[in-house]
Amino acid sequence: MEEQEKILKQLYKLKLDDLNTREAEREDGLRDKVIECLVGDYPEQKDANPEPVENTCRWFLDDPRFHKWRRSTASSLLWLYAGAGCGKSVLSRALIDADHLIPPGRVMTSTVCYFFFKNLDNRNRGADALRGILHQLYTQKLHTNLISVAYDAAKLYKQKLGSMFNTLWDLLLNTARHPAAGEIICVLDALDECQADARKALLAKLVHFFNAAIKDTNSQQPCIKFLITSQYREDIDLRFALLDPASNFIKFPGDDRSDLLRQEIDLVIDQRIPEKVPKLNQQSQLLLAEHLKSIEHRTYLWLHLILEEIEDKFPSTSTLTRIKALINELPSTVNEAYEGILHRSPDPENVRVILQIVLAAKRELTVNELIVAWHVTRSNQPQSYQDLDLPDEGCRYYGTALQSAAAYGHEKVVEILLKLDRSAEVNAVGGEYRNALQAASAYGYEKVVEVLLRHNADVNAEGGYYGNALELASARGHEKVVEMLLAQGAELNTHGADYCNALQLASYHGHQKVVEILLAKGADVHAQGGDHFNALQAASEGGHEKLVHILLVKHKTKVNAEGGYYGNALQAASEGGHEMAVQILLDHEADVNAPGGHYGSALQAASALGHERVVELLLQKGANVNFRGAVDGI
């Protein structure tokens, strides 16, 4: 009997060890999946900026506004803005590399994450930034269980997760609420280089977060501190003007520190001159340095251009008279420096064409757009798209030249490209937007959409991160484009982006007129599936009480329909803390104790995220406080 008991214990131990091994392997697999979705070359992007010279950056580091932001133990935002060439990105690198962002005593509980925006393929969207921040946050805290917050999203969305801005933002907030998160410090450098629509969406999230933070009395609310740098932009300023005066927001105009900046530029001059012209005698080096320091409006950008010219033009040895003559030829402004570069170009004809393109453009062009425009002007009567001989990397973000032109609303360029190869390339696939019609629909360029449809663009073509053109136009509220696509036979109830349909996306983003257009054309208000499950749950998740009311009263949608991430509309509204939406749902007999979804019940969703007023509303309607649900044994 004892022998049998011993064998049973051994078998039990073997089984337990096997289960533990499998669980560990499953955990490793999920962890790897999350990291793979978020991976990027973030340190390389940071280190592309020069290291600061010793004793520089003090104009910011010694400022009481920075100290106030750094000392804060609550969520806070500092916006540093200054003109081009003031060394903002060098400062950002210095803050990160030299551990200036964390005050003494908080090193063990704080994590620094960063993203350097650049007007390039994978560095100019809010999703790019959030992907980088989450990747750094999780990889720095692999010894904790913090990364487990992202497991469900990684399983549900797989590789799509890395491009889903709203989902990534929610992940950041949920991660910050985890007990292992501690203080999260996020540096967003060069926000002005973020794509306009993406910048608008990111700013809206920031404003909402910081306004909500001052109203949230929950002691466990997340602590996320943002330090944002940019050139001054009115759209950024106007967005931040919406912040509650009581919020922890510090506005830091760097141009006010121009005197200190010039002093620091002098330190850089003293270090760089011997590096650039090491064979010049000391007297010549001093003469050169003093001349550069005498320029009144000196900036880092100007100095960078001047040092390149000095390295190219100054001989290793020369008479003092010759050195003085060369010094007098040096440009004293950024414009003069650029003009000198253009004059020295070995191909002045190309310079002339590029300048004409830049001057003719209504706004600043991206590198991709400039490449396309240049090739159109230089090709010798091209007969097809391939005749443009575009470099592969030139249009990687948008897939093709046609997509790039469509994404930026260049109607005439779209016409030119289509005439070159008739309609053969109108449905070419690839890039961020699966085709040109999706790209134009995303930004509401009605005339471009009209041109593409006239050239037989496939109105129902699917693929890419965004599903199809109708879903994109619906998600972004472009009413006229939605009508144009529907008139050309766009299918209403197909599921594309995140397996959602157009009605769900319009409902989630609160575009009431688009919702009404879709429903008038026969969209199925009860259609189920995807991230948002149905239109009512989508509107509830977004907190759009007017739409919630319209869907319930006018279109008789089912208030207790079950399914999706949140299980039902009430749980979706409760998780977001949307009091009015919760009240409307309860008034229309939403089941306050309906089980299911990620949190198990509406009360658990509101409680987990600290929404006190919503908790009170649910309790008043008889919510069961002892219900055991789905998340972490709550």
What does this structure look like?
By secondary structure, this protein is mostly helical. The chain folds into four domains: 29-255, Rossmann fold; 277-343, no CATH class; 352-491, Ankyrin repeat-containing domain (Serine Threonine Protein Phosphatase 5, Tetratricopeptide repeat), CATH 1.25.40.20; 532-634, Serine Threonine Protein Phosphatase 5, Tetratricopeptide repeat, CATH 1.25.40. Helix content is 52%, strand content 5%. It is built from 31 helices and five strands. It has helices at residues 2-38, 42-47, 58-61, 64-71, 88-97, 126-140, 151-157, 165-176, 196-215, 234-240, 258-276, 282-293, 300-313, 320-329, 334-343, 348-360, 367-378, 401-407, 411-420, 436-443, 446-454, 469-475, 479-487, 502-509, 512-520, 535-542, 545-553, 569-575, 579-587, 602-608, 612-620, and strands at 76-81, 110-116, 183-189, 223-230, 249-253. It has a five-stranded parallel sheet, sandwiched between helices. β3 (183-189), α9 (196-215) and β4 (223-230) form a beta-alpha-beta unit. α11 runs antiparallel to α12 and α22 (469-475) runs antiparallel to α23. The longest helix is centred in the N-terminal third of the chain and has 37 residues, at 2-38. The model is unreliable at 390-397 (pLDDT under 50).
